[in-house]
Amino acid sequence: MDKVRLGRTEIYINKNGFGALPIQRVSKEEAAVILRKAYDNGVRLFDTARAYTDSEEKLNYALSDVREHIYITTKTMAENADDFWKDLETSLKTLGTGYIDVYQFHNPPFCPKPGGKDGLYDAMLEAKRQGKIRHIGITNHRLLVAQEAIESGLYDTLQFPFSYLSSDNEKKLAEQCKEKDMGFLAMKALAGGLINKSALAYAFMNEYDHVLPIWGIQRESELDEFLSYQENPPKLEGETAAQIAKDAKAFQGEFCRGCGYCMPCPAGIEINNCARMSLLIRRAVSANFLNEETQEKMRKIEDCLECGQCRAKCPYGLDTPELLKKNYKDYQEVLEGKAI
Fold first, then answer.
1. Could you give the residue ranges of the DSSP H alpha helices within the chain?
2. Are residues 301 and 200 both part of a single domain?
3. How many domains does the chain fold into?
4. Residue 317, domain extent
5. Per-residue pLDDT tens for 224-241?
């Protein structure tokens, strides 16, 4: 079983981290079955957030009796010290624990530092002094903020989107974390659904012995796939390597990662899916992408106000309105049988 050391935290765990965002979408009992099965099969780190509705509650429900044998990482989107403490106390209560192993700033637009007017980092230090958190982390989708966090030396971990579709600059972040002995948690290891073969994603991750992938898991069948790789990890060679190279070439350039930080749209457009529909539909053509419900969502692109809000909020600096137009045109060609 492959294991990873999470930088200077000295957290040493198996290569499968459990991303608990998707369990919001299933019942408490269904979530408990999945979480417990993960634990029983060696998964020891569970990543959640205050913003993930009832995810923390479900973790407590399923794993409270083994709390001392697992690591919990959660997040706050607080913008000031008062809200930081409210979030922290709520998370501690909801998770049913006296401490959080890694407490993370959740995708802030800047890198919190000691002495800041927001008081966020100083609150982190005080929470650590009180024993309520053990390590300080940050998550982000912005390359510049992530780089600043690494260079600052203030953070024990960085959580950032990372997959074999990542750019060279994004891959460099992972190497910089290794150099700084900083834990690297890889979110969106399946690139928001654009990678549809988990074995390829796992093979890529195994090339980075210091990176912990956080697999977003909603179904027991998804968990089973990742568990199966623990004893027989896919290798980055042969057909696997060839397919990864082919995919990486096909996705070069600008594309929507589906993070959703551009939402909500004042025109009601489901941007995080509509802006990457042409990619999704070519990865796995299915009735769900062609049904009337999806067609209606795509038609909403015609209502775009050109307000620029989505462009301004995109952490990847994408021209989102233009992407929507291109995806809508492509989608119409698929419906008319002119593409694929």
1. 28-40, 55-63, 81-95, 120-129, 143-152, 168-179, 198-205, 220-231, 238-250, 271-274, 277-283, 287-290, 292-299, 309-313, 320-335
2. no
3. 2
4. 271-335
5. 999 999 988 999 999 999
